[in-house]
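lol ok so funny story. i was supposed to be doing the assay writeup but got distracted and ended up predicting the structure for this chain instead. priorities right. anyway since i did it might as well share w the group, maybe its usefull for someone
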Amino acid sequence: MKTPAQLCALAPVIPVIIVNDVAQAAPLAKALVAGGLPVLEVTLRTPVALEAIAEMKAACPDAVVGAGTLRNAADVKACMDAGCAFGVSPGAPAALMDAVAEAGMPFLPGCATATEAMALADRGFEVVKFFPAGAAGGPNLLKSLASPLPDVKFCPTGGVSLENAPEYLKLPNVCVVGGSWVIPNDALETGDWARIEALARAAVTALRPLQKV
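and the output, tada:
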């Protein structure tokens, strides 16, 4: 398994994916990977999420498919059993962090404050998710953390778009961003995979030069 830092270096954007119809999983993964985004985060927000992960892994063996919105030890076990390459959470409750450590799962725990970032750094996490990025202070907050916490790198997610992603990626403590703008709901519902591939490619073209790897 790749470390979180290695995962974040593969592309400037980690797509945050919500799958309601498992039939969408394979073509969606193919479109995103063809557009240059090989790291895929499928959130555990629907009943078909784990099945969708399996479909994506089968359709795109070279993709790195993980799960998002993990909330407890049961989620960690289910994702490990499903062969997820990594996990992501919106926060970092102690029980979840203990389960992650026991499982040895590459993980991006969520934080929104300096105290939370410091606590996660003390537990050995070098890369953490900054969520909800826009509501929690955006680039200005992360900029203020760069000097006192130089060893912590962030993946801002929540309110991130192609328009504001450059502001995040220019910061020294941001290694990647997470976002759903490359998967518009209308394109997903109509199966417009060409549009999704084009949005992924546009994101890579615009943001890869700003990424620090």
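The longest strand covers residues 13-17. The mean pLDDT is 97.
back to the writeup now i swear
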